[in-house]
Design brief:
The protein is 19% helix and 41% strand. It is an alpha+beta fold.
Length: 263
């Protein structure tokens, strides 16, 4: 018997939806379990990203059920559940493959490995941050300002776009590097525009620590704070995830409806 898992946030309404969904799954002839072939994710984009972080190594097909606000990553709403289960039965769906990236954070006394599908942000708390940017071990630029965003094509529609970065269209193999409120003057010669590159490249960010101030790294919502970070190296990981899409889904329509349509 094919099994389906459910991941949801702790909001009361979503706990109730989980119970309803469990019954619908069973009535449709599927089993339920923790490591199902498919995984329904009930919540907003933040919940979806957490589900990927926690389950990417078991590699289910993720199905986003948006009960949050924007829901860019999730195509469906809860009323679509019966339709989705029928699509799975009849194998009438698309699979979208999303690359997962890893960030190796080297500190004075330890190394941490983070993963993301959306974006990674490096900032200080309440002051300007000074960074060195390398691509494939070659120095590209310094950045002095509020920080830096490294985003995937999915993440390009989020913080990156709000910060003036590029919207990456049809580019699952593309990353962008966008400085945040970069300073460019006689003292600080910062990169002020975004860089767009293929994901075969390795990006390294080196914080220049001033007065022992801690650096923040926000990686798909997961946060690290430390004052001894030596480098953050970003590259493709060995992992990818699959997302179930309806036969009519297209990325352009999703962008127009949820990002560009301001009417």
């Amino acid at each position: 018997m094919r099994t389906i898992s459910i991941y949801n946030n702790d909001l009361k309404d979503n706990k109730e939806r989980r119970e309803i969904l469990t019954e619908k799954i069973k009535k449709s002839g599927f089993g339920t379990g923790r490591e199902g072939e498919f995984m329904f994710v009930i919540g907003g984009d933040g919940t979806f990203l957490k589900a990927i972080q926690r389950n990417m190594k078991t590699n289910p097909v993720f199905i986003g059920i948006n009960t949050g606000n924007l829901g860019f990553l999730s195509e469906f709403v809860f009323n679509d559940v019966d339709q989705i289960l029928e699509m799975i039965k009849k194998k009438q769906y698309q699979l979208e493959t999303i690359q997962i990236y890893e960030a190796i954070v080297t500190m004075k006394s330890q190394v941490k490995r983070l993963y993301f599908v959306n974006d990674l942000v490096v900032k200080e708390f309440d002051d300007a941050i000074h960074l060195g940017l390398h691509i494939n071990d070659q120095k590209i630029a310094n950045i002095s300002g509020d920080g830096i965003i490294v985003s995937t094509h999915l993440g390009s529609t989020a913080y990156n776009l709000s910060a003036g970065g590029p919207l990456i269209y049809d580019g699952n193999h593309i990353l962008s590097i966008t400085p945040l409120v970069a300073m460019h003057n006689k003292k600080y010669k910062s990169l002020t525009k975004s860089i767009v590159l293929e994901n075969k490249n390795e990006i390294t960010i080196n914080p220049y620590h001033k007065k022992g101030r801690p650096v923040r790294i926000i990686c798909d919502g997961n946060r690290i704070k430390a004052s001894d970070i030596r480098s953050i190296s970003i590259k493709k990981s060995p992992f990818s995830v699959k997302m179930l899409r309806s036969p009519d889904y297209n990325f352009t329509g999703n962008i127009v409806e949820k990002i560009l349509n301001n009417e």
